[in-house]
Input
Amino acid sequence: MSTINDNFNRTSENVESLQWNTLRKLCRASVEYFTSYRNKNSVRLKDALLVILEQLDELQPLYNEIAKFASHFDFDEETPGNGYRSFLTMVDKCIMYSEKICQKIYRQRNSMFSRKSRHIKKIEACCQLLVTLHICLQQLIILHTWHTEAMNDGKLSLFVMNRNPQEFLNLMENINQYCFYGRCIGFQFSSSLRNLVTAIMIAMASYSEKYYNNGTIFERCGNSINYLLDPEARARRIINISQYADILFLQAFWNLSELKILSIITPSLAVNQLISVPPKELILPTLDGGTVSVPIPNSHIGKKPIQLRLLSSKRRRGMINSENRGRELHDLSDGLIIHTHGGAFVAQTSQSHVTYLQKWATMLDVPILSIDYSLAPQAPYPRALEEIVYAYAWALKHASTLLGSTAKKVIFVGDSAGGTLNLGAALKCLQLNIRKPDGIFLAYTPVLLTYVSSPSRILFHIDTILLFGFIMRCSEAYTGLDNKKITEKPENEECFKLDIESTAEMDKNEFTALHPNKDSMNSTSKLASPTSDSTLNAVSVHVSSHTMENDSVRRASNVSGQNNKLWSRFKQSLGRRSNKNVRQLDTKNAKTIVEEITMPEDLFMSPYFASDDMLAQLPPMKIMTTEFDPCLDDCIMFARKLRSLDNKVTLDILPGLPHGFFYFLRVSKEAMEGVKFSANRIKELLEL
Output
């Protein structure tokens, strides 16, 4: 059952929401007012408002056309949602956002305190956004023709597998990414989340100044302040580093969430224990009455201990160090949750995820064992998968003696990359013929680690969390396609010091209790800072027409492809100054996108490629994603595939939340509700 209720039953070709009409009225009233004034600011405001009116007229037929077929790609009638719908919602959100700005302009038109220059930048940013969404809708129309051509047995797929990825990427070239990271950043989210993603982008731009050692400390501080005050400078910096920063920068920035100071806001648990499991032989029974030796992780970095974190709201019998605490001990839990964290396969540990895991441990009253698997690029595929399978086998063998659980019900839980790894581990259980988990919960999980055409994957090019360039670097690192040797450790990497605790019941040869510490190192590489500029000067925004193969597509292209005098005059009024001071990182040696996205079709890397026979054997599954997640279509297609094989699967699409929203529960009411909703889904798996 979905939690979305966006009234997507749009059937009329001329449907116009109240917001669209309200925005038109506001723009017309303001245009009429500013027409009588000849000063520069009034002319710019009027031109921008006229562009909005024009874009509304051109967007409407594309919007209505997509609304006609969007529902055909839903998981079911009770779960409306897919990449097509997401863009319709995004257009609606943009209309509402623009309406608020136009209302302020209209209310303050006669005020002596009205800051017309500020209004100009905001309304011009809205123009950029509308024009870019116009381009996105055009690409969606083209994508739909590809889907129709690839239709198999009357079934529409959100993935277009029979096209070269470069064709899809060529369509994306005209998307203006800058407008999604400037003044309009996070417009599609609630106010609390919008402020949060803005803060994250400011932090990323500012951190890059320190990481790449740009100038003196005073110059870096000045640039950081500029990113706070100048959204356009921030947007250019974000796009610059997303295109050219290497994987070590991504690890360093994302691992900032590991800082000890952030743990202050995390409530304490009865048990929050780090464990080190040594690499030694594990024998498990097979389903046919035999035994099997679970492979010891050995690829890339050799045999090393695996780090785990045990979390529990209660101290239970048989739990690590429980006998010496002198506190009340509770009975063993029948459930056990095996958690695998996200981080794009390259960053973070369980420490970054303790905030929401603590909430789940309290709500579910079940021990949670989170796996700190080895990270790419130092340990690419299949190292992490090997460790998760081994950790799961270890947990089955020691659940009652070390983890406080009878393990009658074992549930795999993973978010993002962690969900992908959990699916691979479940498939490995089938291959080894050992006990599989009793249920799997997936949160915004990619199931196809190759670049195929999909409506929601267009969101990668405009997402505030999963920036396209970053995702390509992470995918390349995880798959091991980058042959360059990594000789430098990422900043803020979580390092563990093995410290054996002396407890009466501990077998020192079996495991080691751990205490984490930090170790940071500075990078000496440099990436120049962008200079400031006005709203649209650094980016030329335009609507490009494409060759389209049916009449409806051709009509849409002709509308936006015509030379528009208003738009030309609007751009001329802004002026264009080139940004020559931006020095980009390693642009000469940068690979083409095609080289970076060529990935093997490995079923343990991309579970979508698993055979129907294997997928049919997977345990009951709960899949949760969000309507603005680039991985949305992945989740829908995987759920559809499982359902066709009579697997017990449910799909939920939460509205208005970004990828990775679990991290934000302490600062966002909507994120907290999503975390609680996910806990209830996990509880359903435990009770099956």
About this structure: The chain has two domains: 1-157+547-575, 258-320+333-517+611-687.
